[in-house]
């Protein structure tokens, strides 16, 4: 080795140790295998919880404190309310956020407490099917409610 090759050799030898391990190893703890799903699920729980607080408190305030409270709630009241796009969006937002928020929480409980992979899989399948049915039927009821049939 000549003296002119020594700096080049030093640069190439030192580069492997200067790089962080997460850039070389795809299974490093800094780069999760499944992407950022758990982080995004965690963030969704926080933001959906805040949104649900405002949506449900607004819903309860409107339903319970104005006029004669719960005594005025009947099919005609629901028809009048769901005849307006604003209230459809409000109630759909509550339905979807509550279902996804709760389902995400149950998914976390299933992951924490199920010991066998097969049990975890089937509980998650039952959870997903129940969430799809609940959101689907609720959305169908809100969007297709016939305002003219009541009254």
TrEMBL record:
<dbReference type="InterPro" id="IPR034804">
    <property type="entry name" value="SQR/QFR_C/D"/>
</dbReference>
<feature type="transmembrane region" description="Helical">
    <location>
        <begin position="121"/>
        <end position="143"/>
    </location>
</feature>
<keyword id="KW-0408">Iron</keyword>
<protein>
    <submittedName>
        <fullName>Succinate dehydrogenase hydrophobic membrane anchor subunit</fullName>
    </submittedName>
</protein>
<keyword id="KW-0479">Metal-binding</keyword>
<dbReference type="Pfam" id="PF01127">
    <property type="entry name" value="Sdh_cyt"/>
</dbReference>
<keyword id="KW-1133">Transmembrane helix</keyword>
<keyword id="KW-0349">Heme</keyword>
<keyword id="KW-0812">Transmembrane</keyword>
<dbReference type="InterPro" id="IPR000701">
    <property type="entry name" value="SuccDH_FuR_B_TM-su"/>
</dbReference>
<feature type="region of interest" description="Disordered">
    <location>
        <begin position="1"/>
        <end position="34"/>
    </location>
</feature>
<keyword id="KW-0472">Membrane</keyword>
<feature type="transmembrane region" description="Helical">
    <location>
        <begin position="43"/>
        <end position="66"/>
    </location>
</feature>
